[in-house]
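Case study.
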Amino acid sequence: MGAGSGIDGLDGRIIVLLAREPRIGVLEMSRRLGVARGTAQARLERLQSNGVIRGFGPEVDPAALGYPVTAFATLEIRQGQGPQVRRHLASVPEVLELHTTTGTGDMLCRLVARSNADLQRVIDRVVGFDGIVRAATAIVMENPVPLRIIPLVEQAARDR
Amino acid sequence: MGAGSGIDGLDGRIIVLLAREPRIGVLEMSRRLGVARGTAQARLERLQSNGVIRGFGPEVDPAALGYPVTAFATLEIRQGQGPQVRRHLASVPEVLELHTTTGTGDMLCRLVARSNADLQRVIDRVVGFDGIVRAATAIVMENPVPLRIIPLVEQAARDR
DNA sequence: TGCGCCACTGGGCAGGATGCCCAGCCGAAA
DNA sequence: TTTCGGCTGGGCATCCTGCCCAGTGGCGCA
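After joint prediction, the assembly is written out as follows.
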């Protein structure tokens, strides 16, 4: 991993272009970039087989689905209960992602809920499991920087 | 918002299908769903103008870009320094997202770095700003549940 | 210095998908 | 019952895709 990886300027421009206008095709892309279509096509393929671009899945807004409340929960789990806890959390649809982190056997997960009241139900379901000792929840109020990748891509391209 | 929104079964199947095989076109989609092409096309358009589907931006893997280390930082900020802190954090490429949360004027941000050592540099840059009083960092070790949306979509579709 | 490799170019080709149109049908609401 | 919105199934021209090719230029290596 990371062996032959790395992004050059053209790769960076491809990703940024794709991030800004996801619907454009290879041909339009090659026109904007000022390269031959075959080049753009080859680069795109390489970026995907490289794993740099994982895919083009639809970005779904949980709020538009009826889940406008987002929260982060820090979980303290009982020793050795990791696998069970993971399985449990994976089975809860409102758990959007889960990380294990350094610290006291902690996990961090992102939750959504239909309302603040509903969040209580979600949390109850999340922590209503033997392996979980304690949970601390932080409700998201604003999202000044939504998940982004462009600045990082540009820096990676600059660093050659 | 959220007025006429909501997802029916067909919408749910469209999103799930798109999430699993993002490259398929409208025609192939209509074939898999067993509906007319016009229907699939109209639904997709509606989902996008609804805001349920925000877009189809490329999913870029920071690790493949040379940033294999992910961390979450909880920041305590000085009263009234919110706007400045946001601007500062937005200017750091390694800050992938930023949330303001309930609690003691806290913020939570996701960071990436080239290595554990590099993470120190990133954190220094993040907290090297007047408005930030204290920072607690949790390094991500594993990601048992990567950011996902399918289970939530299926539940939303089931709930009518 | 000369050679081979690799990426890029510019072009061509057939098949397929897209965007857009239409008339007809049907169920639900007024 | 009438109207309306959504779905169907079809057609159309245009455009893009995936794939192919030969030619060219830069670069590292012997």
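Observations recorded in class. The mean pLDDT of chain A is 94. Residues 25-28, 37-38, 41 of chain A lie near DNA strand D (CB under 10 Å from a C1'). We will return to this complex in the next lecture.
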